[in-house]
Design a protein that fits this description.
- It is globular and about 40 Å long.
- The protein contains five helices and ten strands.
- A hairpin with a 2-residue loop joins β2 and β3.
- The model has no long low-confidence stretch (mean pLDDT 91).
- The longest helix has 22 residues.
- The protein is of the alpha+beta class and 156 residues long.
- Bound molecules: iron/sulfur cluster (SF4).
- The site of iron/sulfur cluster has 10 residues, from loops.
Length: 156
Amino acid sequence: MLKKILSGKACAQCKICCVFDDSDIWEAPLITEKTKEDILKINPKQEFEPLGASMIMKMSKGENGLYKCPMLGENGCLLGDKKPFDCKIWPFRVMELDGRQVITLSPVCGELFKKPIGELVSLLEDGLADRIFNEAEKFPPMVKKYINGYPILAIK
Ligand code: SF4
């Protein structure tokens, strides 16, 4: 979904969005029932835990203090095009600020954070923002509370 501006090569070398620490485990992708089925086809033993009105994959903390997504394989995400919507749009996030939904940019993604803001806004205005807001309407748990410091790129 972000292939126009985010190269697969850069993502394959980084993978920061697939590993979490205690401060950003909230970024773990929310799992829908459909994605749960896809995950269980890959690993029937994968467990899930509730997170608010949704669920995330159960992940154990490694010795380095990090949680690695169980769907992260040697060559990237084992789910391919079936990865959670949260992952398809990351580092964009839908957040709620003063009762309005906004699309923000996570500062954690070094690759996209260094792009000119105008390029990112154009991409959102070119239909991506509508797709993201539509998905958030269908699946409200993906809307997070606004976090100070996250640049706002689109407002619903
Ligand atoms: S589901 Fe795939 S893309 Fe999403 S965090 Fe896990 S490995 Fe990364």
